[in-house]
């Protein structure tokens, strides 16, 4: 009887009491585990092991109606550009606005020409004034459509501010000698550097411009715009640069500007081989681009992984391109002059052709995109890349809003801008890159040493706070940072308390040693 009662009690206990007790204990244990803080990430710096950085951080400015005088974003954007004081600033009038990008929209006829700089000069003048004292890269990438063989005449809007995505048609130039297009670029250069030019009919056009242009990039994203082959582009490049050098013998040139470098090994192999160029053809830089492009179903919590994963894929491309460059032409430099993110909403809006407006970006997106650019700068500096360019100063609804470094609602700089400014004010070519390691990919760190002292760049790649344990010699340092708490405001500075620092989600920070 007692044994039977005992067995019944045990059955009741096992069926009703123990499972509940086990569940409670599990919840308590899980809560305890969740509350255990992550260990601090240890940053190790060896100042005795270093290489020398060649990398300059910079940006590109793409022409669009918001940069026109009187436009809401004009004043703030050019003031912000001037405040950066950057070199190698790329300036690109481009295809969606033919009247703001092409200076001879119709071929000469009936004894007249169509040369017209009235929609182009004001913005370029403002750009040159804002970058005065610094090197610039001009890229008038859009070739007059009438210079190509097309089935019918390419038309375009009369309104210079009306977007038009179908201007670049045709793949074969009507003049196979390329003299016509070479003369076009030579006259364009003369307008801005020599005070004017003489047109095809012998008429003189005076500009009064005598700008110093350090670099000219020959076309943009050539695999998309007119679908250039390696052979055709190389012939084009040699012809155009030869004509432009007659106008300005000191001008230097950049080439390729590939949109998808990982898909174009044959372009690098062919173009970089000196045997494929005319003797003395000037090639000073090659250029190419990268944009992280998440899938439409992803959100911010996914982007913290996909952005950096795609970045690593691009860096692998950089490594193989560098191998090709060093094999054929080690004296040629590299400018990665479009680095950023294009969110799916941007593409959806453009494809909608006015029927869809892109949704606003999450506020933390701007910090995440800034953190990715900062990490690209670090990785490129380690590889010896010469110029690392963030894209782009101004974007807005209908014109790639997610690439903007200016808040298109307030016309004030956003976190991407302030991240670039933080890098520009602290790092540059000639700095020593000390050996720096962290145990995982959750953060990035790089120590720099220059005539201004020792500094440590820290980047949080994740959408959560992370604690870092810094080297002992960082005690007493100050930290300047761009983070969600600084918003669209300037970087903030505070003293470090001890050796540890807690980074906010996607924070980019510079530790300045005493």
Fold and architecture overview:
The chain is globular. The chain has two domains: 41-50 and 433-512, Immunoglobulin-like (Sandwich), CATH 2.60.40.1180; 53-429, Alpha-Beta Barrel (TIM Barrel), CATH 3.20.20.80. The chain has ten helices and 20 strands. It has 514 residues and is of the alpha/beta class. Strands 3-4-5-8-9-10-11-12 form an eight-stranded parallel beta barrel, surrounded by five helices. A seven-stranded antiparallel beta sheet has the order 2-13-14-15-20-17-18, covered by helices on one side.
Write the layout of secondary structure elements.
Blueprint lengths: L1 H34 L5 E2 L1 E9 L3 E7 L11 H11 L4 E4 L28 H10 L5 E3 L40 H15 L2 E3 L5 E3 L8 E3 L12 H18 L4 E7 L6 H7 L13 E8 L7 H29 L4 E9 L2 H9 L10 H21 L3 E5 L23 H12 L5 E6 L5 E8 L2 E8 L5 E4 L8 E5 L9 E4 L4 E4 L4 E5 L2
Parallel strand pairs: 1-16, 3-4, 3-12, 4-5, 5-8, 8-9, 9-10, 10-11, 11-12
Antiparallel strand pairs: 2-13, 6-7, 13-14, 14-15, 15-20, 16-19, 17-18, 17-20
Helix pairs in contact: 2-3, 4-5, 5-6, 7-9, 9-10
